[in-house]
Amino acid sequence: MKHVSLTDVAKILNVSRGTVYKLIATDLRFPAPAQIGKVLRFNYQELIDYIQRTREDYEKKHGRLL
Question: Which residues of 16-26 are buried (b: 16+ CB within 10 A; e: fewer)?
Fold first, then answer.
């Protein structure tokens, strides 16, 4: 199982680290981080699944891709 850091998540999503913290706090579908040592780590596959679901939901709602 591959884990990525908060900074890596921000890079993958092309957002700031602060935005990732907001997603953790406000989006119930956002993958929960695991604390490994002193840092937060995210399951890479769960993150990819979240991105796919979000894109699909957007496409269904707006009829086009992001």
Answer: eeeebeebbee
